[in-house]
Amino acid sequence: MEMPPRREDVLLEAQRRFLPPDLYKAMQKLLITSCVDVLAIKPAGLMLPGMKEALGDVKSKRGVILGNRSHHPAKGTDWPIGGREIYGHHPDVTAFTKTLQETGLEIKYGHFVAIGSTLFINGESRHTLNTVIAAEIVGGQLLQSKDYNHYRFITERGQLDSLHPYPSSLLKMSGIFGGKPKPGIVVFDERYDVFKELF
Question: What is the Cα–Cα distance from 8 to 89, expressed in whole angstroms?
Fold first, then answer.
């Protein structure tokens, strides 16, 4: 397992040049994008700057922070933190980098959860193959992000049925809210409104 990059290196990397937007959008219609999704776990007793404003008084509670996406795909949906894999970085390092860039939080790798395949057609056509991990929040501060309208704090299994099937299934498979982790493959295809789990 690689060591996570230094915080200052991550923030500097956020300023890297990306492909021109028009070229990247054209590529997304032809290629599968490799991404990392992070189930970011806040331990009970941890309260970092920005958490009270975004989540309420949750110091004594353990749970997972999801972001309500501000753009397509899955716009307006509570979703795991994460994004495109970074060339040359393995999934655990990309997870650290993306979580810090998008939320200001620092994480420690926990365990592998699943491989997710998501295909969206509403808003922007996009097919992603996602490495999903559970990771514990260990530092930083929770920032309001351009990537999310707001955050949602999930603390118990009873809340999972109110979520989109993709994050709901990942959280059930993760073992975070009871039971042993049950790794597998999660498929969501918006063309046919198809959702399934493969073990």
Answer: 16
- Please state the pTM of the whole predicted model: 0.89
Q: Per the domain annotation, does 133 fall within a domain?
A: yes
Strands (E), 121-179: 126-140, 148-154
Backbone angles phi, psi at 94, to 5 degrees: -60, -40
Domain-embedded: residue 2: no
Q: How far, in Å, CA of 112 to CA of 133, rounded?
A: 5
- Burial (0-12, 13-18, 19+ Cβ within 10 Å), 145: middle
The structural domain count of the chain equals 1
What's the CA gap between 102 and 85, in Å, rounded?
Answer: 14
Instruction: Specify whether the backbone of 74 is left (phi greater than 0), alpha (psi in -120 to 50) or beta.
Output: left
Amino acid at 80: P
Chain segment 58-107, per-residue pLDDT in tens? 999 999 999 999 998 899 999 999 999 887 888 999 999 999 999 999 99
